[in-house]
Amino acid sequence: MSLKKTIMDESYWSRIRESFLLDPNEIYFNTGSFGSLPRSVFESMQEVLHHIEKNPTRHRGQQQTEVTNARKTLAAFLNASAEDIAFASNVTMAINMVVLGLDWQSGDEILASDQEYGAIDNCLHLAETRFGIVVKRARIPIPPTGPEEVLDAFEAEFTPKTKLVLCSHITTRTGLINPLDKLVDLAHKHGALIAFDGAHAPGMIPLDLQASGCDFYGGNCHKWLCAPKGTGFLFAKPDVQDRMRHVVASWGYSQEGPSLGDKGELLINGQPFMWGLENWGTRDQACFIAVANAVDFQENIGKDQILARGRQLADHLRQKMSQTGWANLLTPSCEEMSGSISAFELLGFQNTDLYDTYKITVPFGRWEDKDSHWMRVSTHICNGFEQIDILIEALTELRGKN
User: Fold this and answer.
1) Which runs of consecutive H residues, i.e. helices, occur in 258-330?
2) I want to staple 360 with a disulfide (CB 3.0 to 4.6 A). Which of 27, 123, 126, 132 is the partner?
């Protein structure tokens, strides 16, 4: 199926939308927080759960095999080696595994942007208080006019003490897509490692982790990839894995320490080192097994088609919003820095009752320290043009009631 056909053929996308479990009487614009499961992914997870509960003990070995297979499917989707990926419950857990798992000296610096997710800010604060490190911030304009403004903001804050750069690949507040490859080059030029918070990238934009050269990349599967809740991953390049320490010591830990395999790969207890880092004891395995089904669902549509569809819907939304006179776009306009998240500053609103009155789910609330409101709209393959038009009609009516 060609890209042109799928973009133009609304009946095709209507069938895709019907594949999801979303309530047809509601409108859902919050994939940026939680993706909805396609019916096939939900049913695959149910099948695994049903099989597990027949005998949770005897079926555990089979579960591990299926988790390994799911990891391989996810790795292929990300263009990475399965041995370099640890499953995690979410990207916050993944970034904690990096920040709290590296060795630090008092006075070492982490350089992050000023637009990181709140839970990651908490992780950085814990590292400051626990290890005596310093967290510096690159101040990125909202919105930046191009990648150079992002790079200049980071360049200005490097010092000889900068050991790690931490940056959202796609920011949660405005949907800014940061220039991953160029930030990798910049960090490495200064002798620093670099880690990305990829909460929003998998399933929204194509990823090639090996080609990117990044040292660490944490991602969520339960947002744009529409996998079960509580599924994510951490990727680490082979040559930096020996710098990491266990954040939780369970059965993936070895008192003798890591060893080297025949090809020089880092192992622990005879398995890839990253698989040991993810072992935090007993947890649900069905959700991770179902990640493979979520990948298959999107692969059948096509990464480029999903990206183009999300941007097509986002362009429609932004055009309509620009005509209102009371909405300022906070997301960059240039295509390379913008995907399927559109954030707006809304003027003249007092009421934010979109769900109770209109059954529309979208993050919408007062903007701190401003006499205005903020709204973030996620346009994914489960959405359509008519839903966007209904949202704008609802906002117009809501504003008129103030």
Assistant:
1) 273-277, 286-289, 291-301, 303-322
2) 27
- Give the separation between CA 381 and CA 361, rounded to whole angstroms: 16
pLDDT in tens, 347-368: 999 888 899 999 999 999 888 7
Task: For residue 177, give the DSSP letter.
Answer: B
pTM: 0.95
Residue 296 has pLDDT above 70, yes or no: yes
User: 């614009």: which residue's tokens?
Assistant: 29
pLDDT tens per residue, range 162-219? 999 999 999 999 999 999 999 999 999 999 999 999 999 999 999 999 999 999 999 9
Nearest-CA neighbor of 99 among 244, 237, 214, 254?
244
Distance CA 7, CA 219 (A): 27
pLDDT digits (tens, 9 = 90+) for 21-43: 999 999 999 999 999 999 999 99
Q: Percent helix, strand and coil across the chain, each rounded to 5?
A: 40, 20, 40
Decide: helix, strand or coil at residue 87: strand
Q: Pull the structure tokens for residue 359.
A: 């059954």
Whether residue 111 has pLDDT greater than 90? yes
Query: Considering 297, 312, 333, which residue would you say is the last residue of a domain?
Result: 297
Query: Rounded to the nearest 5°, which phi and psi values hold at 164?
Result: -145, 135
Does residue 39 lie in a domain region? no
CATH number at residue 324: 3.90.1150.10
Q: Cα 97 from chain centroid? A: 16
Q: State how far the alpha carbon of 257 is from the alpha carbons of 240, 269, 325, in Å.
A: 16, 9, 62
d(CA 267, CA 264): 9
Angle at 242 between CA 238 and CA 247, to 5 degrees: 110
Q: How far apart are alpha carbons 209 and 181 in whole angstroms?
A: 10
312 and 268 within one domain: no
**Residue 248 and residue 94: Cα distance in Å, rounded?**
12
349-386: buried (b, 16+ CB within 10 Å) or exposed (e) per residue? Answer: beeeebeeebebbbbbeeeeeeeebbbbbbbbbbbbee
- What element of type H or E holds 85? strand 85-88
* DSSP 8-state class, residue 228: P
Assigned domain for 36 exists: no
